[in-house]
Write a structure and sequence with these properties.
single chain, about 120 residues, 2 domains, 3-stranded antiparallel beta sheet, 3 strands
Length: about 120
């Protein structure tokens, strides 16, 4: 005998959200039928899909590894950004010093342009 359950019951069995169950139905990963405005899912199809899916500890370890990889990437990008800031600060300092020298030079602009020294 086929036992049919609601989306809410399926979500409780699978320990996930109702939205997740509806997505599985849409992907045809669950045997389901629509009765009026609600979906009914075959209970044994929930059990089959639960056997195929990784358990929580496996999933957590995979996610932790991905998170560590992302954190390493963030750290590397922050170091690169710090180096770029140091370079830009150096350039700004040099330009400021150069501008200060130009301001202190009392010669006319055309002498400065053609580098005529008196």
């Amino acid at each position: 005998m086929k036992e049919w359950i609601t989306v809410k019951e399926a979500a409780k069995l699978r320990k996930c959200t109702e939205r997740n169950i509806l997505q599985l139905i849409k992907k045809n990963e669950l045997e389901a039928r629509k009765e009026g405005h609600r979906w009914l899912i075959r209970k044994d199809s929930i059990e089959k899909i639960s056997e195929k899916s990784p358990n929580n500890s496996e999933l957590i370890s995979v996610l932790k590894a991905e998170l560590q990889e992302r954190n390493d990437q963030i750290k590397q990008l922050q170091e690169e950004l710090s180096k770029v800031r140091e370079r830009s600060d150096t350039i700004i300092l040099r330009l400021t010093e150069h501008n200060q020298q130009l301001l202190e030079d009392k010669r006319p602009w055309y002498h400065k342009l053609f580098k005529r020294h008196q």
